[in-house]
Amino acid sequence: MKKLLVGLMVLGMAGACYARGTAKAEKTSKITGEVVDITCYANHGAKGEKHASCAQKCLTGGMPAGILADGKLWVATMKDHSAPNAKLAPMAGKTVTATGTEIEKNGTHIFEIDTVEAAAK
After folding, report:
1. CB 97, CB 116: distance < 8 Å
2. N or C: which end of the chain has fewer CB within 10 A?
3. What is the CATH code of the structural domain delimited by 2-118?
4. What are 112-121's pLDDT values in tens digits?
């Protein structure tokens, strides 16, 4: 199981590198939104404080991380090519502000994070 999760993370990071190199559009910006685990969000719309502990467990377990902002789901990657889950899992279900690069590839919204922090209230 661990080999499978590691393999999926490596594929995800490789995909992010590929997307970065062949992106349709890139824009440096700042987004504010909720950290979600993409699997639960995509399968049954799970988000918010009620789902935060589940999302944290899913992200810690290697499920893909995203940021739900302005009606768009952004697949999260890190500019330094580290796994985004290490940084985002503790923020699951919370609102964050991330700075970085917006990438669009074949209709997929990817946000390559430079910095991320809890959003100002």
Report:
1. yes
2. C
3. 2.40.50
4. 999 999 998 7
